[in-house]
Amino acid sequence: MDNLTTSSLTELSVITIAIKDNYLWVIMALGFPGNLLTCFTILSIRPRLRFTVYVAALAVVDNVCLVTKVININLNQRHVNMGDFGCQFLQYWGSLTGQWANWLLVMMTAERLIDITMPLLSMRINKRIYLSLNGIIILSLLAINWYYFKVFYFNKGDNNKCDYHNKTKEEENFYFIAVIIYLIVYSFLPVLLILIMTCLIAKRLYASVSNLKRHFSVSRSALEKRKRFQRQITLMTMFTCVVFSILVIPRPVQHLFMADLKRRKVPYDENLESFLTNIFFVMSDSSHAVNFYIYFLCNKFFRKQLYEKLNNLIKAIKTCPAQSPQFSNLHGRYTRSSWTKQTAI
């Protein structure tokens, strides 16, 4: 029985190590090009709305977060001496970009809610107000995550990697409080706000379509077109919210639970804890890679724009001739027509 248990623990440890060493590369391979395609598609849409700018900004921040996580985990796995500041900065920047991405999703949902429920107010809110609100959020996140420079350090002992101070009772209590603040800012508060706003959006959309049909003489085709468009946006927002909640919530809950166990020095299975931690990290980090696929599956207009832009790009590449005098001279001013006229002379 003991041999069987030992064998199971060994297999679990091997699986845990395999996940930890490879999962970020898989997420990076799926998420990085997907986020680039999101920017490529959404920024080509005219007119450029605040909602589309938020979508593009979210894709950029998601990619920055993924790159930071890949750099951080690989430097730690290879035991590269980053020094205290390097360790603290990578932890700080990874946490900041992860939280920033979640709050961009909050702002994107809030912008959509205001646009639907209070269109007059939405028109009065100018770019300066939106930049100010986003600036307040960014400055708040910068201040909240400053504790990484107090908690983390580079352990030059046996581990030779980033670690956090937990030697004294005061350090343990400080770290526990910092974890609680991190969990509230990273997941609980964004998820709560997004769920509330998504429900309000869905309720308002249903009421607006009903009122439109009842009070205005709109042709059936126009009404159906409006309903389809609003349904796509609602479905995309709600599905994004559901996926975000499922992926993000487990890791902070487990983090809080384990921090409490360690603070109270309650015994636990370290192999199982390590396995679950890595699984929840996979889920949490996947939230920075799945948005493109949600947009693609839930929004017909996004798919149409993506197909159109990719087809135009492919056609442009195929029809682009090799560099020749037909298209450029030393000053880069020849065109096909001007070259034809000159050769005819």
TrEMBL record:
<feature type="transmembrane region" description="Helical">
    <location>
        <begin position="129"/>
        <end position="149"/>
    </location>
</feature>
<feature type="transmembrane region" description="Helical">
    <location>
        <begin position="275"/>
        <end position="296"/>
    </location>
</feature>
<keyword id="KW-0812">Transmembrane</keyword>
<feature type="transmembrane region" description="Helical">
    <location>
        <begin position="51"/>
        <end position="71"/>
    </location>
</feature>
<keyword id="KW-0675">Receptor</keyword>
<protein>
    <submittedName>
        <fullName>Rhodopsin</fullName>
    </submittedName>
</protein>
<dbReference type="GO" id="GO:0004930">
    <property type="term" value="F:G protein-coupled receptor activity"/>
</dbReference>
<feature type="domain" description="G-protein coupled receptors family 1 profile">
    <location>
        <begin position="34"/>
        <end position="295"/>
    </location>
</feature>
<feature type="transmembrane region" description="Helical">
    <location>
        <begin position="23"/>
        <end position="44"/>
    </location>
</feature>
<dbReference type="GO" id="GO:0005886">
    <property type="term" value="C:plasma membrane"/>
</dbReference>
<feature type="transmembrane region" description="Helical">
    <location>
        <begin position="233"/>
        <end position="253"/>
    </location>
</feature>
<feature type="transmembrane region" description="Helical">
    <location>
        <begin position="174"/>
        <end position="202"/>
    </location>
</feature>
<dbReference type="InterPro" id="IPR000276">
    <property type="entry name" value="GPCR_Rhodpsn"/>
</dbReference>
<dbReference type="Pfam" id="PF00001">
    <property type="entry name" value="7tm_1"/>
</dbReference>
<keyword id="KW-0807">Transducer</keyword>
<keyword id="KW-1133">Transmembrane helix</keyword>
<keyword id="KW-0472">Membrane</keyword>
<dbReference type="InterPro" id="IPR017452">
    <property type="entry name" value="GPCR_Rhodpsn_7TM"/>
</dbReference>
<keyword id="KW-0297">G-protein coupled receptor</keyword>
